[in-house]
Design brief:
Oligomer: heterodimer
Strand content of chain B: 25-35%
Strand order of the largest sheet of chain A: 2-1-3-4-9-8-7
Number of strands of chain B: 9
Strand order of the largest sheet of chain B: 3-2-1-4-5
CATH class of chain B: Alpha Beta
Shape of chain A: globular
Order of helices and strands of chain B: HHEHEHEHEHEHEHEEE
Radius of gyration of chain A: 15 Å
CATH superfamily of chain B: HUPs
Order of helices and strands of chain A: EHHEHEEHEEEEEH
Largest interface: A-B, 42 and 40 residues
Mean pLDDT of chain B: 88
Structural class of chain B: alpha/beta
CATH superfamily of chain A: Class I glutamine amidotransferase (GATase) domain
CATH topology of chain A: Rossmann fold
Number of domains of chain B: 1
Distance between the termini of chain A: 12 Å
Number of strands of chain A: 9
CATH architecture of chain B: 3-Layer(aba) Sandwich
Helix content of chain A: 10-25%
Number of helices of chain B: 8
Number of domains of chain A: 1
CATH architecture of chain A: 3-Layer(aba) Sandwich
Structural class of chain A: alpha/beta
Strand content of chain A: 25-35%
Radius of gyration of chain B: 19 Å
């Protein structure tokens, strides 16, 4: 079961249709089982049951999750595949000691994949949809996978299958989520 | 909060009244970009379920090839606003590509001043062009931006419209092989099945996201009255057709 974590400002918000449901739709079309839960309603049982966990993005103005990083401390010792998307990537960065830094970007832009991983495949250029006011700095113990140090597009924990991507894969890059569910 | 979190770089952020208000109970005051087509009406429905819709913003473009705005029958959007019971802010634009954007910005700014909106809702499904531009305007005006049908499966979405009780008619067709029978037709299960087949064979976007179709909504679960078309003109030639509403009124349901 893939656990899809809603990071939006409140449970069952209007943003959920935009940032959570499209990800759930991709997972559903792969034939995988999934459950959706808001980050304030997560339980140990759900985390235990999950084969992989996706932390979804939020609206541009929504940084409620960033004020509640302590609710994500469970990520630190978890040895399961995790994919943080945009806000989700910011959460992963913050939990592992990286920074959340101003870096506004809206729209499609080129992304340079610089390091081969199971999730993003071999180095090459792709185009991805960006919608964020904040980016991240690389946390200790993570490798840069796409982008550059001052503008991290994707990272991976150097030993565990924990990934972050700042772009939104539901737009033109659904393959990222499809690959994640079979990691 | 643990020590690691305290080390996170916390940039200075603008005051966020939303968070101060208590996130669990806060309802955002919203303006919906509203053409009267199915996408804006359905987005409005979603917004009314979770938050407070205080105005509908209609951009009336004088350019029939407008980049951003649905044009046919938009002059009747006021009837839907009245049927739903939400005030409409109508804003005119000449419809030139870049001026159109500044007109949209002005309209949204006017809605913020007049109705105190805190966010905008759009019916964007796939268009990165439209979505990015509205996102940038909202960022500039310090407004939330919601796109509740973004990336929705288009066939599932059409079925949802029907199952939730929306009466949607096709008021424009602009793609091969959509024949004259589509102009003025109601979106129902039979039409949806045909669109699904055309999607497979001709790669047509079933909900018209690529400009293949335009629609107008006559009734739905958020309508207190329904719209009756009294007179309309139909044109069709070479896979391009329109149903132009000439007279319409509200009637009791």
């Amino acid at each position: 079961m893939i656990l899809i974590v809603d990071l939006c400002y409140k449970p069952r918000s209007l943003s959920r249709y935009e940032f959570v449901d499209p990800i759930a739709g991709i997972v559903r079309r792969t034939g995988s089982m999934y459950e959706i839960v808001h980050f304030t309603e997560l339980t140990g049982d759900l985390i235990e049951k999950a084969g992989g966990i996706i932390l979804c993005g939020t609206a541009l103005k929504d940084d409620f999750f960033a004020e509640r990083i302590n609710l994500f401390s469970w990520i630190e010792d978890l040895n399961k595949p995790i994919l943080g998307i945009c806000a989700g990537m910011q959460v992963v960065a913050a939990v592992f000691g990286g920074g959340i830094v101003p870096q506004p970007k809206i729209g499609l832009e080129k992304i340079e994949i610089t390091r081969e991983t199971d999730l993003l495949g071999p180095p090459r250029g792709i185009e991805g949809y960006h919608l964020h006011n904040y980016g991240v700095t690389l946390p200790p113990g993570f490798d840069l996978v796409a982008g550059r140090p001052g503008e991290v597009e994707a990272f991976k924990h150097s030993e565990r299958p924990i990934y972050g991507i700042i772009f939104h894969p539901e737009v033109r890059n659904r393959w990222v989520v499809e690959r994640f569910v079979i990691l | 909060m643990d020590e690691r979190v305290c080390n996170v770089t916390r940039p200075k952020r603008p005051p966020n009244t939303f968070l101060d208000a208590g996130a669990d109970y806060f309802f955002v005051k919203l303006g919906v970009l509203f053409s009267g087509g199915k996408d804006s009406v359905f987005a409005c429905r979603r917004a009314m379920e979770t938050d407070s819709v205080v105005c509908l913003i209609t951009i009336v473009s004088e350019n029939p090839e407008s980049y951003m705005f649905h044009t046919p029958n938009v002059r009747w959007a006021h009837l839907i606003a009245e049927a739903i019971g939400v005030p409409q802010l109508s804003w005119h634009t000449l419809g030139e590509e870049e001026a159109e954007l500044s007109d949209l910005r002005d309209a949204i700014a006017a809605a913020k001043n007049r109705y105190g909106i805190e966010g905008i809702v759009t019916g964007a499904i796939e268009s990165v062009y439209q979505a990015s531009r509205v996102q940038r305007i909202c960022r500039e005006l310090d407004l939330w931006c919601f796109n509740p049908i973004w990336q929705i499966d288009q066939v599932e979405y059409l079925r949802l419209l029907v199952s939730e009780g929306f009466l949607v008619i096709i008021t424009g067709v602009f793609a091969y092989p959509l024949d004259e029978s589509w102009v003025g037709a109601r979106i129902d299960e039979e039409r949806i099945r045909k669109l699904e087949a055309l999607q497979k064979k001709y790669r047509i976007n079933p909900s018209g996201e690529g400009g293949e179709l335009e629609t107008f909504v006559l009734d739905g679960p958020i309508f207190k009255k329904r719209i009756e078309i009294l007179k309309a003109k139909k044109t069709y030639e070479n896979y391009r057709g329109r149903l132009i509403i000439e007279e319409a009124r509200l009637v009791d349901k």
